[in-house]
User: Fold these one by one.
Assistant:
Number 1:
Amino acid sequence: MSAVIHPGGHGAAHGHADHDHEHAHDHPHGWRRWLFATNHKDIGTLYLLFSFTMLMIGGVLALLIRAELFQPGLQFVNPELFNQFTTMHGLIMVFGAIMPAFVGFANWMIPLQIGAADMAFARMNNFSFWLMIPAALTLVSSFFMPGGAPAAGWTLYAPLTLQMGPSMDAGIFAMHVLGASSIMGSINIIVTILNMRAPGMTLMKMPMFVWTWLITAYLLIAVMPVLAGAITMTLTDRHFGTSFFNPAGGGDPIMYQHIFWFFGHPEVYIMILPAFGIVSQIIPAFARKPLFGYASMVYATASIAILSFIVWAHHMYTTGMPLTGQLFFMYATMLISVPTGVKVFNWLATMWRGSMTFETPMLWAVGFIFVFTMGGFTGLICAMAPIDINLQDTYYVVAHFHYVLVAGSLFAMFAGYYYWAPKWTGVMYSETRGRIHFWLSLLFFNITFFPMHFLGLAGMPRRYADYPMQFADFNAIASVGAFGFGFMQVYFFLFVVLPMMRGRGEKAPQRPWEAAEGLEWEVPSPAPFHTYEHPPRLNASATRVID
């Protein structure tokens, strides 16, 4: 759709009724609407539904892991199958659930927030979504291949990967396809943000969610080819006689770890920066104050992205690196906590003396700050080389990254869903159900992962299907919490998402949150199929539309 300013400079909230009947023929119906979707809202919805499906599959694998660990001894599965569960749980959650969910939010919200008619490359947008379906099917179907699914851990370390069956090749293929999808999505997001903002929206007036995604998209383009290189070298080692990671042929398995974590650590921030953006939108709305230190938030986000490239080997303190290397990565890792601390300080300062109310989106946002900060502190502890050498590959690390990823990424996504879904669906969610979902999820999450800190400090290794009796009590508690947390997400889908998708509930006003700022609140609820027939003009504060 052309991005020409209408001579009259129509406001976004006007002219929709006039245009709806003209554009009725533009709306594809039935299966064609979804298969050939080029509308950013439809593609955003597809991404979100896909990622929730993968969340459920990954969640079932997690519950199988926790069922096995409920008590000592082997209950249900042998150690090999247990390792397949841990590997596939990690791969499915990272590449199938968290990343696509944030791309779904980006597709839905970035054009709405910057006043763009759609994403820059609408057909490529469709293609980058549909690429994920065969990749996901390949990944999940690897369980049914000879020898079962890959069992090398989600990090796919050599030499284990060189010894796996054909499912390893299927996994590598799936990762390549998912990586290609990510890169296309990132190009689309960058071009959309840089070229299609409404007149008057300078870079430093963009919503924080748009900023965090712009930086995330650059990160994705930088590191996905690194992962592609690592798994391609694994593939050639397996089938074409190379010896990149095979010591018998002069290769080095530690080199794989360096390449993987050079991708893997920025990847961690790819999964958290959009969450920072969502929380930075929600807290000002419910504190009824502008975001404290907007510019410092932008610079902190960029600093995190840049520093994320120089901390990778803190995952590798036990590989025998020289002392100077350990010191460098230790200090670099501690340095990255500074911009992260700036963000937490700014969120707290935004809430300070604000007129706060705690509707469900705000509950999730505050819950996010609480649990993410706990995960951040355990990250600082793991950054210390002398301590980490003892904690390496124990349940302490499992506790740390689940506090950052489940409590970080997932809590922020729920916050974003409750915040924006009234705009997407045109109906309000049930506040009572939202609160039940929040409080029980928070409770079960902490019951699941907090005991893992103690297990790790006591020396329980991760990825083990069996363990000594001394670890039994905390494992039993964690398993009970995991099942509770899993059931709460099923509850969320059945009793919050489905009723909203069916349009059941109180009709959502155009501006469901009185103090929410941004262009997305200038369009009707639900947002029309074609949002901005003419780009909105912005006033000096870049919040309200000038008619």
Note: Residues 1-24 have pLDDT under 50 and may be disordered.
Number 2:
Amino acid sequence: MTSTAGRPWLSSYADGVPAEIDVPDGSLVDLLEDSARRFADRAALDFFGSTTSYARLGEQVGRAAAALAGLGVRAGDRVALVLPSCPQHVVAFYAVLRLGAVVVEHNPLYTRAELTTQLADCGAEVAVVWDVTAPAVLAGRDRTSVRTVVAVDLTTALPLTKRLALRLPLPRVRATRAAMTVPAPGALSWDRLVAGAAPLPGNHPRPAAEDTALLQYTGGTTGTPKGAVLSHRNLRANAAQGRAWVPGLRDGEETVYGVLPLFHAYGLTLCLTFSVQVGATLVLFPRFDVDQVLAAVRRRPPTFLPAVPPVYARLADAARERGVDLTTVRYGISGAMSLPPDVVDTWEQVTGGLLVEGYGMTESSPITLGNPVSSARRPGTVGVPFPSTEVRVVDPEDTDRDVEQGTPGELLVRGPQVFSGYWRRPEETAAVLLPGGWLRTGDIVVMSEDGFVTVVDRIKELVITGGFNVYPSEVEDALRALDGVLDAAVVGLRAPDGSEQVAAAVVAEPGAILDPDALRTAAREHLAGYKVPRRVVVVDELPRSVIGKVLRRQVREQLEA
């Protein structure tokens, strides 16, 4: 039996979860090819009912790799993917990697300016983009290195009946088609390019485990985005850690719902790599839509659902109202934001399965901690360290000093999933990667005696007022508990004298009328005086990222304006 000395969390692991994993030696290309052999006839992808087997996926990746090689893509080159979740995204991802090139993921809903900034930074010369986004990429080419744009038409991946239906001369159908695809003059066609390519020769050079696989941009909520450099080994290690964390999974039998965007670190690992590792069928959705998800449940019931709390809440409510059976979902893994205990209760009542919270960041591929997939889970915490992962809780002003157990401090993590640094940003790399391979997370946490971690707040979002530290999450929780408050976001606003003041943006429940002064008065019953917002503003909604996380930087800008 593995000793728990120095790692008290091991005693909370679910049965069968190892303390250490064997990090695979191969690349992500090897991962896909292994699954294509083991699960050749199994559906790898499901897109609105159109399926692609693992054998067919492997074949498509080979042809797409040859097509990209014909465009001049070589090992080490960066290739931009600007795509929603769709079969072409999966094929392009693995095709780029097959050449030893580097995938650079981008949000297809970004503005022209946002895309141009990232494309200029990564230096990609070839971009595979959703045709709806192609004009923004083409328009910014004078400020980037992009010389070739390949446009993807999502509708070509749909089942034949749905493609034919999109040709009907009805206003509603035209609007649906226009939202999915538009002409992209100046761009090459992905479908024609791949269809006209011969399979890549088997002796074409292959990537090694230590080669860079991915540049994943991060930091957009706190400053200029920067590319986290992740190797094949980083990503394979995290997929293997995830597989070990859920010992009840059945290789070749699971159905994973891809409601998370593949261009986000969370969705990329849980859907693009983890799903392939276990030979699961990945059901893809270009965006989260309750109606589309519940329709898919009737067609191909899910067994494993990685998502964010609002998705679980909305699906559980809708399934109850419409009588849709979700009891096939045995496991749910929540991340990216705090998981409320009441969401856990509701979801587990509706499904009979387990819903646990995890923790991670782009720089760690991204998962480092998780709640045990067992009765030992502890709602309200982000769980315990993954296998082969070490953690420390330190004084953020002196990272050589560990704080006393139960005292707030900055979380440091170390493991095979931790990145090598930021793309061409040595100073920013040095600020987060400490000697010994420790990654500064920037999160203030408290660790219990048995190793469970609770996130208190982000260091960069800490508000310092009158010399006191105010954690925004604590104030937000207090505001959400008040009558009539649906949601809240708390930030620090700079005062004329240079100090900070606590400010809050709140959203009212339907039909409720909120009085800012009354809210401040009520908050004093739950918060020390210095924590009570000096200013409360009622807003219609809070700005959120594509996966639903509140963007406090934008909240601050709105309140300052």
Note: The two ends are 59 Å apart (CA to CA).
Number 3:
Amino acid sequence: MYALAKAKDELANYLSNVLNVDKEKVLNSIEYPTKEQIADLALPLPSVTKKFDIEIKGEYNGRLIKEVWKDGLFINARLNEKELLKEIFTNFSENYGIIKTERPLRIVVEHTSANPIHPLHIGHLRNAILGDTLAKMLKARGHEVNVRFYVNDSGRQVALLIYGLSKLGYPDPPSEEKKDQWLGLIYAMTNVILEIKKINEELKSTTNDSEYKEKIARRDELLISASELSKRNQEYFNKLSDQIMNDKDPEGEISKIIEKYEKGEEDIKKIVRKYVDFALEGFKESLEKLHIMFDNFDYESDLLWNNDVKLVLDFALTSVAKINYKGTAALDLQNYIDDDIRKEIRIPKGLEIPPLVLMRSDGTTLYTVRDIAYTIYKFRQFNADEVINVIAEQQSVPQMQLRAALYILGWKKFAINLIHFSYGMVTLQGMKMSGRLGKYISLDEVYDKVAEVVKAKIEEKKGILENLNEIVNSAIRYAIISVSANKPVSFDVKRVANFEENSGPYLQYTYARAYNILSKSTENLDISKIDENELKNEKRTLLLMIAKFPDIFINSVDHLQPEVLTVFLRGLADVFNSWYDKERVLQEPDESKRITRLFIVKGVETVLRNGLNTLGIASLTRM
């Protein structure tokens, strides 16, 4: 049991007797006051009893807690600083604060899962970093984690890319170009030319004046995009334009590609997989810069070819919840889940859930049915206790449909343990994106822009460049994980590379500062020599924060809230820097004061190191 857990236990023992309330109930209700000067720990009386006229009589004689008093509806407690420091550092280890769970689970984290048609862009950045951070945190907590990427290779977008490549004669990417960026250009060119062709044909039969003007305006916008794309490779653009504009039925060709691939015809299988894998090579190259890797890449097509999707579809078609919806088969989700089930699978009471359409009118399956098959696969393939899908908030309703469908079809355990980790969108200031028009800032460009700013700051400070990549990684990661997932992020390159405050590099700089104080010390840290009078003001605050770290770690991981740990580390860094700018450590002549301060620095250094590593940020000793 770590120090603060022992302190809470001590307080709970005392108060359970005073209040005549079950100890566990008291223990689970103890909280941290929002203002530290009020108290160190507090028990809100309404959480444990209806009797508020309690008197705390006499002096409290505890070890880790030195004072207990009542204030309104709260019973407050203050910790014994000297005993707290001794408790923390008597059995202190390099892994301090990283508390392993008593109930390790097998957890699948699926994230990023971008369509393999163009490079990853800033829109994918938040998904990838959040997913990777969750996986790292869960592993640190002692869970067995499997990280997966779902390759959507069977949809229209991939078929459109293959259609464009077919018009170019299925070329290989030039050796000097990054493969996903090369594919993204061909995809955007193909899409823009197809849209222009479609509007040209529609204009021939448009008689409504306002509708005609709208189409002309839309075509003008597309022509501007076409002009910009053509400058990037005139040869490709001219060839695609000639071929597509003279194609009598491009949509028919795209549909044939989809149909043949879904059936697993060998000729098209080889072609599609070849180019999809080119895209994945590019993804891996981009993500490795941020130390993001996957255990498995799961292809949607495999679920079709091995009949996983067909088995789910056939089973769903026999369900009592099957209905006819707009001329095709669907599952009625609204009338087959009551309020108790909604609570169990996290669907808000009263929210209308649309039917889940099982197939198109031509008999082909929709992505929602494939999601059911894939969810079952993830649980079974890893024998998972939980599956976490990191998906944008716009997919909240489809994710609810997925859980409801799983429950109705009998996979209740999977429905209950399927977690949608939802997040808001991320934008780059002053930039609107459209992958189909080739307008986006790629993840590689974001990385390079941040690297440029970071490098300039390091050179300005006369620092060392050997850890440039780790500093860039910290800047980008921190910008994403310091914000609550349900809030939008506006990505500002200059702000994320700030070395002075509220950034990843700032935390790394603070860690290096603490580390270097300790590395220069030759002191034997004898705990019997500490000066308890030193444990005041900022030093007391730092001691309490060091004590709270195990709690912060546990709560951050168990509630899947990386921002809680991130914000805590930033607060710790702020207090440490504020204190260190005013007081010396190694130069302090009084031995007891010096040793006490070194213990505080040691605690800060360890908490920062373990916290940063948990979040996937390197703790650098030199900057």
Note: The first helix runs from residue 3 to 19.
Number 4:
Amino acid sequence: MIKSLFLFLLAVLFWNCTGSTSENIEIKIASELESDLKDGRLLLIFSKNHEAEPRFGINDNVGTNQVFGMDFENFSSGKPLIFDPKSFGYPVENLHEIPSGEYTVQAFIQKHETFTRSDGHTVKLPMDQGEGRQWARAPKNIYSTPVKVNWEKGKSLTLDINQIIPPVEEPQDTKYIKHIKIKSEKLSEFWGRDMFLGAHVLLPESFEENPNQYFPLMIYHGHFPSDFGGFRTTPPDPELGDDDYSARFGIYGYAKMQQQEAFDFYQKWISPDFKRFIIIEIQHANPFYDDSYAVNSANLGPYGDAITFELIPHIEKEFRGIGEGWARFLYGGSTGGWEALAVQVFYPDEYNGCFAACPDPIDFRAYTTVDIYQDQNAYFKEGEFRKTLRPGHRNYLGHVDAMVRDMNHRELAIGGDKSRSGDQFDIWQAVYSPVGDDGYPKPIWDKYSGEIDKEVSAYWKENFDLRHIMERDWEKLGPKLEGKVHIYCGDMDNYYLNNAVYLTEDFLEQTKNPYYDGKVAYGDRAEHCWNGDPNLPNYITRLRYNTMYLDEIQNRFLKSAPKNFNQKNWTIIK
């Protein structure tokens, strides 16, 4: 009798803690939006900001909106989706722990498509729709009009998905800027469907008037560009005032400043004594991210080969590029900085120099603040009697506002456990990891707990740890990389990327037969993404990527270009 009473009281307690607060959330979808909906991820987003759409307010900071996510498959037309209250959330993990109060709430569906890849795996992933794989802005994704609700535990809620994101408008060609798009045979074969690469091409002054001139190629790597950036043929908009504020840089009038820099670049570009060359910005968004990291990958396919051997030769043939490795230069920052160095390392004969600013981790002993080889857990630094969360983001004073766990849990809520968030740690994992048994990237660590998989870290080391690869293969690579490697980073990089640069510099400075003969430089107290100028603030130099490295490139030409190359205007007559 006593035992039965105890079990009854325990059941009542359990019911009060769980069952009585079970939320019933129904997501209805307008009939006209159901036609191509089959698989996807449903997000439920809460916000205390009643002026902005909740989908645009999810971030790593303490001011983030709340999001929960769940996958669904084989959607049945005419039936609502029932949101699973056990779905994982960020920053609050459990739906029943959301405090009572007034919120603006929105439901959002990121659609998944089915890919039957040449490696034998069938996977379901969100396809880029021309926006650069940004889930909150991707055409064809659908969402509800935000509504205010008085939320309380156990609440029933119905949301109506009645909006669809429209197609992206393609940019138009101008005198100087051309846009190309080609089908990649290599990528199409891997993905089992037509896959494309694009580029925005900035042509030199007098290109049409001089049909016998051929030009070197500057390849700018970075995140997905909607059009060629930082080039403007008209002065700044006179209606722009100085009252707009850049929170990132803490200054007013930044929009006007950006337009002025773009116009100044145009004026330099057309001046008679400016170097003549072609600049390209590549579009290579894919089902995992806004770009591919420009290398061959088990999960993404042969993007390195596709860019180097399909896209770039096509551009050079179309726009009179010289078409040889000595006349191609790589540059970029952050993601683009890693790509510039990686492409130079993996294709040393095809390019004649890289200028890698604030690169993503180039030595995985400092994978941001994690050593994936020695550490057991990515989220915690552990001792015998306590453990401490690892920092993920800081300012120039070292003040931390996000932890590595925060950043990964946000991705877990948005994209689930198959690297589908379209964000930073997931794309690193997609690029660097082997394919798992389920066809998705094998996790470097458990996305929830942070426990590191040492078999995966060993694979990363041999295939994508750029410092390790250079050191391992220096006897073969060294002669091909001599004078080509230039790395720049702020010593207070927000994502601790300078730590991997320090380790890489240690190796480069000890190289022999040959000495690497490049450059590594640091910006004092400079944040992400310092690119090499010690005399100007970062908010200016980041607008001058296209002109910053021209002196170094000219020096490289003097050492390596053919004797008949015309240094005066960087052209060669054929």
Note: Residues 1-21 have pLDDT under 50 and may be disordered.
